[in-house]
Amino acid sequence: MIIGLGSDLCDIRRIEKTIARFGDRFLDRVFTPAERAKAERRAGAPGALAATYARRFAAKEACAKALGTGLRRGVFWRDMGVVNLPSGQPTLNLTGGAAERLRAITPAGMTAAILLTLTDEPPIAEAMVIIEARPAE
């Protein structure tokens, strides 16, 4: 059963300009240390760093929409971190207010699964999040 759905588009150029203007102040406010480490490993190719951050920014926005709160009611940027499963598939690791909200919207006897897809076609990055409730094992 789907309990949340969110999508977001992000202009990669906007993220690139924001990084140039605010640097670590922006990056530390929005991204987890794991996300920053992953992005920095991709910094070699032209435009790859900004595109990596833009996809993750879009994922956080999409997740906040899927949670039904947006970035308010105790849900903060760094409460949602894009991580990869061993298969390489992206998903989100929720902490803090985002994890609390996920628990609140998950029906009794169910567990939540977060499905995430990321893509970009410069200058646009896109993310879609589906939160699914599955019977508890």
Automatic annotation (TrEMBL):
Residues the record lists as binding Mg(2+): D8, E61
Pfam family of the protein (one): ACPS
Coiled coil: none
Class of enzymatic activity (EC top level): transferase
GO biological process: fatty acid biosynthetic process
Enzyme Commission code: 2.7.8.7
Localization terms from the record: Cytoplasm
GO molecular function: holo-[acyl-carrier-protein] synthase activity; magnesium ion binding
Domain 4'-phosphopantetheinyl transferase as annotated: residue spans: 5-100
Catalytic activities: apo-[ACP] + CoA = holo-[ACP] + adenosine 3',5'-bisphosphate + H(+)
Family per record: Belongs to the P-Pant transferase superfamily. AcpS family.
Protein name: Holo-[acyl-carrier-protein] synthase
Gene: acpS
